[in-house]
Design brief:
- The chain is 82% helix and 0% strand.
- It is built from five helices and no strands.
- The mean pLDDT is 96.
- It has one domain: 23S rRNA-intervening sequence (de novo design (two linked rop proteins)).
């Protein structure tokens, strides 16, 4: 059965859950006081799910790929910022490992979705 709405996509659902986990982690006493890092990681994680949704709603594989690339860049930014949060001891090793693993999983899903759409584009020619 074909996906009818972006909310049905596993990658968007996973990005939503990561966003929820990031917001929870940034409520930590020390993390929430680091306004720059807190805001940047929150914006980046929201960007992941937002660009997946926007790309899907564009109704064009070429446009969807463009927005998925933005999303993939943002998930890389989240991963990088997680290292900063860990190095500053705002999150524990367990939190870092879980969040990073989730981010890598989302990155892989996005990359696979891009490959799928590129194949569809080349087969449509």
């Amino acid at each position: 059965m074909a996906i009818q709405r972006f909310e049905e996509m596993n990658v968007w659902q996973d990005a939503r859950m990561l966003s929820k986990q990031i917001y929870k982690a940034t409520k930590n006493k020390d993390f929430k006081r680091d306004f720059g890092l807190r805001d940047q990681i929150q914006r980046a994680t929201v960007s992941v799910m937002s660009n997946i949704a926007e790309g899907y709603e564009r109704d064009s594989n070429r446009e969807c790929i463009r927005f998925l690339k933005y999303s993939k860049g943002s998930i890389g930014e989240v991963r990088s910022l997680l290292y900063v949060a860990f190095d500053q001891e705002y999150i524990s090793m367990d939190e870092f490992a879980k969040l990073k693993s989730d981010a890598v999983n989302i990155s892989t899903q996005i990359a696979n979705f891009i490959k799928y759409l590129r194949k569809r584009l080349s087969s449509d020619k």
